[in-house]
Amino acid sequence: MEGPKKRFSGELIPENASLRKYHPSSELDPEPKTFGEMVKKWPKSTFCIIGNEFCERFSYYGMRAVLTLYLINVLSFDNSKATIFFHAFTVFAYTSPLIGSVLADGYIGKFWTIFSISLIYASGQVILAVSSTISKGSSIHPGLDILGLAIIAFGTGGIKPCVSAFGADQFPPHYTTMISHYFSIFYFMINAGSTISMVLTPEFRATPCLGYDSCFPLAFGIPAVLMLVATGIFMAGSFSYVKLPPKENVVFRVIGTIWVAIKNKFSNSSCRDHWLEHFLDTHNCKTDIKCITANKNKPENRHKCVQEKFVEDVKSLVRVCVMMVPVPMFWALYDQQGSKWIIQALAMDAQIWNGFELLPDQMGVLNAIFILIAIPVFQAIVYPLVEKCGIKTTLLRRMIVGGLIAAGSFVVAGFVQVGVNQTLPDIPQYNEAFFAIVNGFKDCDATVSIDNYATQFIPANGSLYDNKVEDHLTLYRFKNVNKQLSLTVHAKFNGTNCSNDHDYSVVLNGGETSFLFMSSEGSFKNSVSLGKPQEGEGESSVTINFMIPCTETNKASLDTKKVTWSNCDKSANPNKEIYFGRLAVCVDPPKDINNPCDPRDTGKYYVWKRDSYNKAIATFADGTSVNYTKYQSNDIKRNVWKMYYVNYTLGDSSRTPASTEITAIPVDGSTFTFDGMGGVYQYQVYQSKITQEILLNRFIVVPKNHLSILLQVPQYVVITVAEILFSITGLEFAYSQAAPSMKSVVQAVWLITVAFGDLIIIIIELLDLFENHATEMFAYAGAMVAVIGVLIILSIFYYEYVDYSEEEKDDEDKESTGTIVKEQLPSVSLQDSSSFNDGYESD
Questions:
Q1: pLDDT tens for residues 490-549?
Q2: Coil, strand or helix at 680
Q3: What is the pTM for the complete model shown?
Q4: H or E element, residue 384
Q5: Which of 228, 328, 614, 835 shows a CA-CA span of 20 to 30 A to 458?
Q6: Is 67 left (phi over 0), alpha (psi -120 to 50) or beta?
């Protein structure tokens, strides 16, 4: 017959099972106190668990740091869709711990749960890394990516409730000091892994590879390798681990108790003081297996009902859960660091000083660094000082202040967004058309007018443009456009060698921004893309309208070897044929004058290949027309650039040629400079018929980012303070105020609040409530203030603190002495339970 049971490191094991079966040290061995004794008796297998956690956290946070940019730049999701997918991933990652908990506690134990799910987890990382090597636009996207992310979310959540607790299992339960040291080391490794990965992985992403400025295969590949290493390190300690048997899953027991109580409440007419007590309506101690077992094992408790005690514990859990209702709103704000705040950073200037940029996906590391600094500051300085001022820093008071500060972080972010909005273009609605005019005459000013609209002056080689930072808004805005709008632009010129006054007929499309380019070499109307670069590496977007005839191309190659210029050599009239071939921009001045362009020097060479340019038509004043070449937008980093005609001497190939395998001929007069990031530009390259010189005209479609990314630092500081006061304190409140038997359930509920917080973000994005991101951030701040108002009301009129500190922890059947305590809070130490630490990791 099975003997009495004792609580053993969170597990129930038979009384007659010797502790030596699980630990080399007997329960009677004295706890090591000196450093030397601790080193001698320290379970060496825990180093495998700690190493595993470091690698796993590096893997997860590294992948997560660059995920939003991957969704935008590779999967071509817009900002809203990327936000939805990012937070859907987080929702799954914070609901899957329930699965891991069930497996570990009720079926296969912690060891096999960690090992089996880690293998699945690693396969998800590998799938995502492989998918990132496949070209953008492939039909394999986004299906394979979503599969990989789903597996990763299941994996990281599945092992979350197991790893730290499994490490604690390696110690005899009375080695409380060593367990405390273990948790300190364990969570230092968590923070070290996550912080280092959030610094390095964006750098891996920004490393040029495979012909692109960004290298997501490297950014995902290294985390995948680290997850495989993590699994290997964990298995290295397999033969020396203490592997405690599984037990009953408390979460399921709580759910069952609540379900029976609700069913009995509606089926019975009896009255109870609390609705959960209806569980006892159908309970009979004489037939209940738990009561029978408890009475046999502990005769002194034979007059006490175990299930009645458990109902009381569930009541304590319900009280805590009511107080956690406002918590999801905090996570709805906090988790936007990985989505909306990164998107905000994309529209800011990442350059800190010349040659150094702080990447948008690196900003999240500020929170990790600040939290490491701020926790000891609050514990050692802030809280004691507040107490000395006569203010009792109860847990709920800390949470209330923390929630208000979290709202403050979004007020700060909202004001930053107001400034960011100044460089975001106005997007015309489907029944609107925005129209600019570009004056390509080098020495002639232009005065333009459109019937019933203002007359405007355009300087030589200038244009109409919008720049909200400078309060310069000169684009024509046409409303009530029924699909198309035909209009006439009246242009008068004043200056040297000017064209006669001329009327230009154009047709505008609803929902588009377009421009008219005027020059003596021809005119054309083009629609423009308003999308700012999203790579976050200091780029600006460049479109080139090229109007240089083949005769100029042939002249350019006379001083070098003869080059076959595709359409130019085949043209019967090269004077009227426009160059239609590869065009590149290379850093000026070049490192090697003889080989000025190096296709393998990514970031210093950008080329328009055959599928990235097309022919368009320009019209002359006399009504005749000529083709010109439109090179589609290309994102180019800040630098001084020069345009080159480029010919690949070995022909087309998937292999990137060396600098000696191409012929690059400079385009005279085509040097231009980018000194910012995030701008959108249209360059017109054409030849003056009068002077024969090559002219370069720049039209600013969208101005460059003008706010420094450092302006995000205050909002990260504020959200970090909020995290300490609300998140860490909130978990301590939930843990300390739940009955001892409810600790693991509280952890599960806490993780679920994270999922609900991210679900709030998803719902708001799907409802598409806000056009202005600044307004959205202010609305989040207002919502947080509102839920904190609810928390204040609950704190005053509903909740009373409970002290479980006197309850004997080694006897699960001991009756709770839940003493009501006003304005007095129990403290929680790390060694109290691994559940507390698992929950802290979720922060």
A1: 999 998 878 888 999 999 999 999 999 998 888 999 999 998 998 888 899 999 999 988
A2: strand
A3: 0.85
A4: helix 383-388
A5: 614
A6: alpha
Q: What CATH number was assigned to the domain covering residues 328-425+707-843?
A: 1.20.1250.20
- How far, in Å, CA of 652 to CA of 630, rounded? 21
DSSP state of 577: P
- C-alpha–C-alpha distance, residues 637 and 632, integer Å: 16
* CATH dotted code for 1-247: 1.20.1250.20
Predicted local confidence at residue 293, as pLDDT: 74
As to burial, measured by CB atoms within 10 angstroms (0-12 exposed, 13-18 middle, 19+ buried), residue 741 is buried
Please enumerate in sequence order all residues whose Cβ is within 8 A of that of 704, keeping only pairs 6 or more positions apart, or say none: 349, 423, 540, 675, 676, 677, 678, 679
Residue type, 188: F
Average pLDDT over residues 608-633: 84
Q: 153 or 273, which is more confident?
A: 153
- Give the bridge partners for 663, in sequence order: 647
Q: Quick one: tokens of 61? A: 């946070």
Q: What per-residue confidence (pLDDT) applies to 676?
A: 86
Q: Which amino acid is at 593?
A: I
Q: Which residue has the tokens 């799938």?
A: 127
State how far the Cα of 433 lies from the Cα of 593, in Å rounded to an integer. Answer: 46
Angle at the Cα of 520 from the Cα atoms of 516 and 521, rounded to 5 degrees: 85
**502-509 sheet: strands from edge to edge:** 456-458, 444-450, 484-495, 502-509
Secondary structure class of 435 (helix, strand, coil): strand
Note the pLDDT tens digit of each residue in 119-153. Answer: 999 999 999 999 999 988 889 999 999 999 999 99
